[in-house]
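In response to the reviewer comment on reproducibility (Comment 2.3), we provide here a single inverse folding case reported in full, input and output, so that an independent group could reproduce the run without further information from us. The structure tokens appear first.
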């Protein structure tokens, strides 16, 4: 970020830092672990705002608002260069974008049918699966079993619930598979695109993919100023702010510590649902979330020990 000086050419006072540099300096003064926790809280607050919009807009329209606003901001910050890309670069970028669209659409459909903590806990099986798949130790079977127990506890066995609950679980599982694909494609995009331009490229593709469904389902309501403003807030809280914080944190902390902190996300989601949406969970559901968090922590720590 360039610096600006005063108009007087004879003024010898130091140039003042630009806003981008000020933000970076402020982020550098915060411990990286705090940045990760702030990113997690930002994502879950964004999800709570998004769920609150479901009373006015269908989930697919809210997803479109989130991805479109987040994509525009990311593209303005890190505009991807399309010239000179190979067909493999295009394949990775487009695949990344399609996966991002399906992951978010599935998650929001799950969020419309399940409490936040439950939806995020099930979705978290995706990154947990990636961590376990990279391992070859028998102890990892314990984490698989613990995660499976958590999912079993979340299922409403023998309870009088609507078919929407089971459908929500299905959507959350699809979102988890999308999250696993997102992790793998994000790494591939990072090798083919400089800086954060790979994510910008993917978000633009994602917005194009989700636009027909989002615009059709949202209709003229998408043009209401207050809904656009909330959609912008969701895009900032759910995409732009957390990604920027996580990127800053990863530059200053080991990846395994980052993974351990991210394991707290289902618990934070459950708390956000309670505090912001009034979603009271049963003891069985809290136990399930603890099982999935413990499985994620265990798999992350064991992966660390093998490095």
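Designed residues, in position order:
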């Amino acid at each position: 970020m360039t610096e600006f000086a005063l108009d007087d050419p004879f003024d010898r006072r130091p140039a003042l830092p630009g806003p981008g540099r000020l933000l970076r300096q402020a982020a550098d003064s915060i411990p990286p672990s705090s940045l990760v926790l702030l990113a997690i809280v930002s994502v879950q607050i964004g999800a709570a705002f998004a769920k609150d919009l479901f009373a006015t807009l269908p989930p697919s329209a809210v997803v479109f608002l989130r991805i479109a606003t987040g994509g525009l901001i990311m593209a303005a910050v890190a505009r991807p260069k399309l010239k000179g890309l190979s067909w493999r670069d295009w394949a990775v970028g487009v695949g990344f974008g399609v996966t991002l669209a399906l992951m978010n659409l599935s998650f929001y459909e799950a969020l419309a049918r399940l409490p936040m903590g439950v939806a995020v806990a099930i979705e978290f099986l995706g990154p947990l699966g990636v961590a376990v798949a990279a391992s070859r130790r028998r102890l990892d079977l314990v984490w698989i079993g613990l995660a499976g127990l958590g999912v079993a506890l979340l299922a409403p066995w023998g309870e009088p619930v609507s078919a929407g609950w089971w459908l929500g679980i299905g959507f959350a599982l699809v979102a988890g598979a999308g999250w696993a694909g997102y992790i793998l494609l994000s790494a591939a995009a990072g090798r083919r695109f400089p800086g954060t331009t790979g994510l910008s490229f993917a978000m633009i593709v994602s917005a194009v993919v989700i636009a027909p469904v989002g615009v059709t389902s949202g209709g003229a309501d998408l043009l209401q100023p207050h809904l656009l403003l909330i959609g912008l807030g969701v895009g900032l809280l759910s995409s732009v702010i957390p990604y920027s914080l996580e990127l800053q944190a990863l530059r200053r902390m080991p990846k395994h510590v980052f993974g351990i902190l991210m394991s707290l996300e289902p618990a934070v989601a459950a708390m956000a649902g309670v505090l912001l949406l009034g979603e009271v969970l049963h003891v069985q559901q809290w136990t399930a979330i603890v099982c999935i968090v413990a499985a994620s922590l265990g798999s992350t720590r064991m992966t660390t020990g093998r490095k």
